[in-house]
Amino acid sequence: MEPIPWPVDRLVAQLGRWSVSRGPLYLLLAERLRELIDSGQLPPRAALPPDRVLADRLAVGRTTVVAAYDRLRQEHKLERHQGRGTWVAPAVLSGSWPGALPLANPMFVNYLEPVAGVISLACTAPHGPPPELAEAFCRALTRLPGPDSGDIGYHPTGHPALRSALAERYTARGVPTTPEQILVTTGGQQALALLTRLFVGPGDVVLVQGPTYPGALELFRDAAAVVKPVPGDDVTAWTRALADRPRIAYLNPSNHNPTGTTLSALTRRRLVEVAAAHGVPLIDDEVLAGLSFDGSTAPGLAAFGPALTVGSVTKAVWGGLRTGWVRASEGEIAQLARLKAIHDLGSAVLEQLAVVELLPRLDDLVRRRGAELRRRHDHLCAGLADSVPEWDFERADGGQCLWVRLPRGDASAFAQVALRHGVAVLPGAALDPAGGSADRLRIPFTAPAEEIDDAVARLALAWDAYRRTGGPAPASVHAIVV
Asked: Quick one: 300 and 387 in the same domain?
């Protein structure tokens, strides 16, 4: 049985923060590879990249990779043969099944968990909840049903009070909505997961903006879809792509993650009209919609025609408040509710009641957060311009991150150097299904100013170290369609 080619991009993503601990780099690399093999994330006969190729992508010396491979060969976890390469030994027990392909994005490997001494710029999320959240939970406690109410606490479609409040909110924004058109989910990520499960099967074509939100990208890959990126604001390209009748199209049209741009109302209307004409469902990810720096909120796609809308309070309030929703037709909501019930029988009631309490004040919270993000955005832009003036980026219109272009080298390799300087940053290849953006970094500005200053200082030191090594030329990154 021949070894299974394992793309270097996939392996680098799976390795994640392998180099942040103390000790010789070859031992740290061997330890992380051993973990991937023992957990089944690297299956038997997975062919690993050549020594020099992996060394270039990890920004380490070739001897580091050779020593790590040789150590694992001595443990009988790898096989190495001159002229044939290196692969996972077939005798190694693994929890994976034949042909299983693990998630490739480092965000979903180990970048969400904090590591001592490392500033994480890999995740965009508010740093701590506002005081209004604790107050909302206190008021929500008074809404809990009594012991003789007969309420068993399971609401697969969502608590009626929250569904009604969200329907009223959409209606007030000019999108008439009934409670039956709302499904409450455990965060926006579950909303996207349920939509993916309902609409996408192996081999289905999914259109996305290129680059795109990595959480959605990984869901589509996990469904074994064929993910095709389209330039975000290129109406002509979108018109051609939609005419090919993909299974579904996913857009993050307001304060886009990672570029921070917002599509015009004219572009939105045209995309909805073309999608409707070809029978292509549109997913409108509105999670960042209110975080515009000028305080405006663009109309959602559903204001112009059929669209599946995903919302959440996570980015506006706090990541720990795991309440999201889907707005769709009653028939689609009924199908999504059946899928959700299989997984969790319904989201936590107390949290939903707290969101009910927050909704009347949500617009004020969002505006306040948008203003704070603008200050932090300007602070980050000034810091980068001063410390790494050769880096290139466009100022964002809103959202939570900058899309930064490196003047040379490979962002994945630089990210490894940055880790060794105590800062975790997400390389652009993790957000680009076409395998582009190899020279890009996504840098959030959600942290307080002091932490942004510390992170920029570490990035500048890492960049100086990376330049001195004569970082590799941008690598050709292959799309990872799982």
From this structure: no
